[in-house]
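The freezer alarm interrupted the setup, so I double-checked each line after restarting. Inputs confirmed:
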Amino acid sequence: MAAGLRAVRRWGLVAAAPPRLGFTRSAFVVKKENNAQPNWLGVGLAFGTSAALWGFLIKQHDEDVVEYERRKRARGRKCTGCS
Amino acid sequence: MAFLPDESRSLPPPPLFNKGSVWLGFVGWLAALADNAFNQRPVIRAGVHRQILFASVGFFVGYQLVKRAEYIHAKVDREMFEYIRHHPVDFHSPAG
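Predicted 3D structure, all chains:
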């Protein structure tokens, strides 16, 4: 019976494990990937997101610098003994 | 507590390129290279958009984490100095 079950699994009649990483792809389960043609939507989204992240980061950093300088000036006038 | 409370803005902001941001950016880039390797693509020449995105996300996350770490350290230092100020007897220099 075990031999029969083993044969069934080999023929893929029992549900196979889903493909995980790239090198376990089964043609029955995954669509054919074509790395030769760029996925322009993905490329656009990736570059757009990167640009947005950098823009936000640089803007936030500059705002933080300005805010810190402003608070330092405000605090400087108030007390001179602060650490 | 919020990730970065308002009083953290009273601290000098860390430089954009600091240990955490550069390292996590590098780690993100390595993750993109690993993704290339696992999917049997040329490791450095493929998916440059993916490499840039992963590196940028890593850089961003690293920067935010460093900001929060500096805030936590400053907060703890402030509490420590306050305690020292309130308990001077315990912190006299050794006699003689």
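Quick read of the result. The longest helix of chain B spans residues 48-86.
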